[in-house]
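pls ignore typos typing on phone
zinc ion + seq
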Amino acid sequence: MGLLLLVAGPAAAAELNFDALGAEATQMLRRYIRVDTSNPPGNEIAAARYLAGVFGAEGIEHRVLESEPGRGTVIAWLPGRGNGRPVVLLNHLDTVSADASAWRFPPFEGVVDDGFLYGRGAIDCKGMAVVEAMAMIAIKRSGETLDRDLIFLGTADEEVGGALGAGWFVENHLDLLGNAEYVLNEGGHGRVLADGTVVYEVGAVEKTPYWLRLTATGEPGHGSTPRGLSSVARLVRALERVRTMPRPIRVTPEVALYYQALAARQPEPLQAKYRNLADALEQDEEFRRQFLSRPEDAALVQSTISITVLEGSDKTNVVPGVASADLDCRLLPGEEPADFRARLEQAIGDDGIEIEVLLNFPPSSSTIDSDLYASIVRMAESEGASVVPNVLRGFTDSHFFRTRGMTVYGFVPIVLTDEDTKRMHGIDERVPVAEIGAGVERLVSILRGIAAK
Ligand SMILES: [Zn+2]
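k done
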């Protein structure tokens, strides 16, 4: 009897050999990196077909979709018992480009060296996709049936905003996700702290992009004969006012929680400040100065503005009639775009500067009071690690699914050092080989651990 129970029960877990699965996943990632999906142009259909082949070989039901010729999306389903709504494993098929001449190894080869697998997408997001695919395959091979359906979804076009990927998918094919409750996406991972301990960051909130174009007009003319305030001079004046405008500090509840969780690991004088960040920033001028001098910290307590694109004349001796600049603004959760714009207009103080909105969508957040979050915490605790909710300074595809009512977390179950993390979108992107198999094992444990409903 005991033996029968062991075979039929959760002990099926013991049958999975995660070392072997990790080695297999590593080979899969090497092959996947060789499918170049630099966006633009993307050509994600090649990646969608590659992953479809992987699922097909395992007898897992799947489908390839195309938003436009070449812009592929792949979806695969592993049915559960229906005791709870489906869980979506989301990733994107495209990558940013890579300048091979700056890399130590060719970026689209998947070279393994000294414990690391190098290649564009090794983490963002092909590494994550392989961990998700292999976790699904592992569960299928184990013969067990989870309470909930698992759905793998690899989309196009994330790196330039997702209009031809996740945006298109939720508009046209949302029914393929059934009544999904949870989505795991990129946007958080395990971090090794200075003292060697591990903390898993789970992206539950994202700042909102509010991209603006400022346009100034003025009398055009010849560069040899300046007259009045030109469009360019007017624009430069406005930009300087934008650059130096006051940026109020606000500590949102999620950010307060995040720093509280990191407090215990700070040296003594900082611990109390991290436990009550809002008060410390308000009352301790020296602490505030140091905190705001670190861009990563400052961006979590302020709405930010980066001046990026500039356009004026294309000839040295021509004064243009029109000049424009793009601002990449990122608003804190809870900040109304209309209020932010009013502050900006007041700072510019020039009715002649036109402001056009290039991109904006509603704030995107998910509660951490959920069965999925609880399962992530149990996995972390089993390794002696901790979990903190995180606010993303940037944005991912998560907002497309949050606005459709799903609970979405940015969470890749792999542990990275800061040295690994900073290479994403940069040169020599890499993932520690040991983390690929470990990631599969952690994800299987999390998926098995989500409570039935
Ligand atoms: Zn990504």
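The pocket of zinc ion is lined by residues 92, 124-125, 158, 186 (CB under 6 Å). The CA atoms of residues 414 and 438 lie 7 Å apart. more later
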